[in-house]
């Protein structure tokens, strides 16, 4: 049926190879980056209602962006249809207030499929996860991420970690791509990262190219990364304790070394020591934290395992201590809605 005169036709969908409309994602990425967990029901199925609440509360608490279906969101454990449903829900809950970036990974064919699903669901960008298992040379990695960036109109952030490690020259080649707009570092080698930053700057590509601290519990290395000029970081703690995460973010931005040290010594370092007691705790301990704040996001899917009650109890005591410290700091606020601001 033809459109009525009063109803203009919808704008055409962007085609691969053209920039996404609206403000550039690189300009919109600011503040604390929220990586929500994916909620599962008791039978292990996706619980979209709880997931929506988790994302909604995170945005309301002050997230700078939502990175959905990434590492903390158990991207590895999601079927493509579940991925699409989560990205669609996150986009709806963010409602344009903050950008939504979706994970995309595995081999070339599946990575492109996830990227196209993210685009169809309305995501603002992609976080390109490492390829599955294989160890490639630099030419192969550059070709893989270039083909992924070519698959959609979405701006793409490349995630360095595990089997996807880059030389400065390779990152320069990636930064020349019009839709590869950032580099998330999960390696944690300041020497390598500084040489990458210098190379990209020397090539004149640094104006709109963003860098992210992507290490687990990035707050521990926040001071070091700021010394390299890298202010953006992902915060898993924001998922279950936005009050603590935001207090630390404010202190770091204000160069309040006393407050930074207080939160590091009183909460973050003990949290990392607990996290290091179990494999997969970078995800499962975070989900336990969300449950402690009153939102039942369920457990993790295999092959990950949930932490035992003793570790959950230890996390609860640590959480109380962290909330007390955050509330006593300048700009500290009362505790957010039950379930955590990002609950």
UniProtKB/TrEMBL annotation:
Give the metabolic or biological pathway: Carbohydrate acid metabolism; D-glucarate degradation; 2,5-dioxopentanoate from D-glucarate: step 2/2
Entry-linked SUPFAM superfamilies: Aldolase
Catalytic reactions on record:
5-dehydro-4-deoxy-D-glucarate + H(+) = 2,5-dioxopentanoate + CO2 + H2O
Q: Which UniProt keywords apply?
A: Lyase
The enzyme's first-digit EC class, named in words, is lyase
HAMAP family referenced in this protein's UniProt entry, alphabetically? KDGDH
Cite the NCBIfam families for this sequence: PRK03620.1 (NF002958)
Record-given protein name: Probable 5-dehydro-4-deoxyglucarate dehydratase
Q: Which organism is it from?
A: Streptomyces smyrnaeus
